[in-house]
Structures are given as C-alpha cells and as structure tokens.
Amino acid sequence: MARMDRTGVARSLEQIASYLDFKGENPFRVRAFTAAARSILGFPGDLEVAIADGSLAQVKGIGPAILQIVKELVTTGRAGILEQLRDDVPAGLVDMLGIPGLGVAKIRQIQETLGIETLPDLEAAARDGRLAALPRFGTRTAEKILKGIAFLRQASQWRLSHHAAQEAESFREAFARLPHVLSAHTAGEVRRRCEVVQELVTVLVADVPPETVFRQLSTLPGVGEIAGEDERRATLRFAGGGSVQVIVTPPQNFGAVLVQATGSEAHLAALAAHAAAKGFNLAGAALWDASRFVATPTEADLYQTLGLPWIPPELRERGDEIARPVPALVELPDLRGFLHCHTSASDGSNSVAQIAQACHAAGYQYAGITDHSRAAAYAGGLSVDAIRRQWDEIDAVNAKLSGFRVLKGIESDILVNGALDYPDDVLAGFDFIIGSIHSRFNLTRDEMTDRVCRAMDSPFLTIVGHPTGRLLLSRDAYPIDLSRVLAKASETGVAIEINADPHRLDLDWRMLAEARQHGVMISIGADAHNIAGLANVDFGVGIARKGGLGPDDVLNCRDAAGFLAFARARR
Ligand SMILES: [Zn+2]
Ligand SMILES: [Zn+2]
What we know:
The protein has 23 helices and 17 strands. It is an alpha/beta fold. The longest helix has 20 residues, at 138-157.
C-alpha cells in the first residue's frame, strides 16, 4: 500500500518549492517543483501503478530527479531532500506561508528587517504596529495577518473532511488486520460527514479484553504514545503527528458503543432522555432495562428497542432528529449529472474529451463544463472567441459519444453590479450558467445580497455557485443574507449550489432545511479542476444528506432533459 497519497505528494512537492525559495535557490528549480505538484494533482491514474509501469516518467513536468522524489514519497511517506531542507530553514518561516496573503518575499522582508522567525513574534509585531510600519504593509495587511494567524491556530486542531476521511480509513484498515479484532469502524465526525473534523474515532469489535488490543496497538509502526482514557478507550498518538481515539467493545454491545462513538453530544443527550422516558437507561455506552443489560449487536437494535427508526449518522446533529420522521436521503448513485467542471481552457488541467470519458465511466449521463468567464483573467477566463472554440470542441466530443452528453456551461463571474460577464446573445448560447462571486468581497451585507439577487434576475442564470465564498479553515464567508437569497431563488426558479470542493462545502448544510422549505432546488457541483476532482462529489452528497435532502431536492439527480428543461424554463 502507498504510504502517501496524491494530495500528500503534491503538498510535499509544494513544500520543497517553498523551502528552496526561502533559501534563495534558482527560481527555475523552484518553479519545477510547483509545476510537478500541479501535474501530480491533475494526474488521472493511480500513482503507484504509474510509477511501476513507467508512465509517470512520461508526464510533463516530472523529470528524473523529481520522479525519484515522488517514488520516495509514495513508498516511504517521506523525502530526504525535504527533511534536509527542514533543518536548513526555520520552521516558523514555513508556517507563515500558511497565512493567506503572505508569500516568500514578504516573509523574507519581515525576517530581514524585524528579525522575526516565529508565529508568536509575528503576532506581537502585528499587534504593536511594527508590521504595519514596514514598506508595502500598512494596517490593513497587519490586520489580515492577525486574522490569518488565528485561522492557522484553528486549522492545527481542525482538519478538512477529505483529509480526515483518508486518515481515518488508513487507521481503520491497519486496525482491522490486528489479531482478535473482528471488525473496525470509523465513527465520530467523519462518520457524521462533518465539513471539518477535530477528532478521529475508531471502534474495534474484539473477542479479547480491551487491554490485550491496546497492547497490540502500541506495537504498530509509528505509534509514539498510547494514553488510556478508561478501561475500553485510549488515544493513540503517532510520532509523525496525528492521533486517533480507539474504543474497544465485545460484539454484543457494538450497537450502543458505535452510537456513542459517533455522537453528536446533542444527539446522545436527546437519545438518553428518550430512553429514560421509555424506562431505559443509556449509560456507560450500554443500554440497561432497570439493572438488566440489553444486548445491542447493531445500532438498529438500539434504536428499535427505544421505539425509533435507525437514524443515519449524517442526521445525528441537533437532537431534534429523534422527534422527526427519517427522510429518504440522496445517495451518490442518484446523481445523473456531473456539474461545475473546469477544463484546460481556463484553470483546469484536462480536456473536454478526458472529462467526458471519466464521467461516463463513473456512471454519469451528462457533464456540464463550466470554465471561468472573462472577468476572471487570473484563472484564464474565456474570451468570446475561446467560448466559440470550446462549443466546437464540445460538439465534436458529443458527436463521438453515445449514451452520454456534454453540456455547454460557464461559471460566470457575478460582476459588482450584479450583471453576468457576457452580453445576452453570448449567454443565450449556453445550455446552462453558474453565476459565482470571485472578486470584490468587501461589500456590505446588503450590497452583496443585492448583487447576487440582481444576478438571479437574469433569465440566463441557472445556478448560484458557492454562495458564501467561504474557504473552510482559511477564509470566512463574505457577508450575505442567505435567507433573502433563498427567497429570491424560490421566486425566480434559480438553483443554489452545494459546492462539493472539500475546501468549500458551500452552501452550508445548516441552511438546507430553509432552502427546502422555500422549495429551492439544490445542485451539487464538483468544482473539479481535473479528473481527480470527480471524487469531490461524494463530499457534496454528504452535505446534502446532513441537510436532509432527498433525490427530488437535487437538480442534477434529474436526467439531462429534465436538467435542461429547468434551465430553459427561466428564459
Ligand atoms: Zn468559483
Ligand atoms: Zn469553479
């Protein structure tokens, strides 16, 4: 099994580039590593396979030296060059790169003029005005840096859902192979499919006492410390950072233990109150009828004994889910259309044909291509000529495909006055249009809401993309009145996106009940920039499920004709 996945390899290559940059290395060498990181992220195949069969060596940007480093990362999880560089460059400087808006040049300026090499020193300088006084800085930059430091701190405890899910799965696989472990299950926030995750929790069903399992766990490679919480729970800390809580249970009590390990606290409190009202006692991660232990080999047994249907983990958040009927939630195979996808025509890395092929193979019936519009020049936004070339490209791809269709779309910037980014005669040529905000985040809440509502007045708009602009753990949402946006969407027949990029997951699931009340259609958009981005969709489905959505609430669960009818109904 690979020791490091695609994202990890790309991140390591990017780190090497930053370190080299700090050391004042040849800019071409620095750029070679950044380019390689991008190629790895966009590489459609399996890395391990591509190394073995030599095809990775053929990829643009992967020369022999970098290939060697990629091999090392994939097989061992580390790279000698990176470890050497870590010794050479103060770690605090590299941490500073995680602060939005702070690049190598500025960090070097701070180091050289103020002698600052750590985050606490940087924070002090941002507070006492030294930073603001530097040339090209000013108070606004200093304030931004303070905010960035706060985000970094938060991010060190929290991780994004896709990283957490991967980490949890690799632990689960390793634990499941231990002797006397009958099965291993991921619980906690990952199982509830939360958008950010603080703690990883795994439940192990074993036919031996917990201490025997803990002894085995402590011998696993990489385990630095094992701290017992009580006789059946322990936290494993790994030498390379990272930790996981492990709970061991015998089979007959697995249901109650898994429910407790999955949470949330509000759900468990509501469940305990419900159990008490029925004459049961849900205590110490077991169910009791007076003083008699009730076996719960599965979660369904537990809920059923309490007179409840099994509640999907995604819904176990606020506690009120216990009092409501359980809705039929949308599942990944319900999605027929793959939406929100960038190609190499703007800032993506695959062609229309490559995306169509990958989506077809993944079981979709249609894909909606949405490159950036011309105002997004930084992201290679398309000129009117480039759009016409892409339409020809799509027509050619469609002519060769049967049982699959590529739709002509665009992710149009919503300009500051609320207009879409092309004249109406160009807009009319698209099958559908996503409108998104990518600039001028500094409007007031009313101005921002008006801007989005004005865009919804255009008969060509189909979907509002990533409606709050948030980047999880790194950038707050811009101020916007979502209730007003949802009311307007309902009135105008525009859909609202759940952007499934795990950095965004925007619209937030907490707003979905209100969207549903308004009858607003939700579209799940991958915001893919390469074929690997197909994997985003599942995170969007998780958010839709957390919000209680079924297939009828999701626009791209419709077939291509139904989807196009929705778009056309507004024109
Ligand atoms: Zn966007
Ligand atoms: Zn996008």
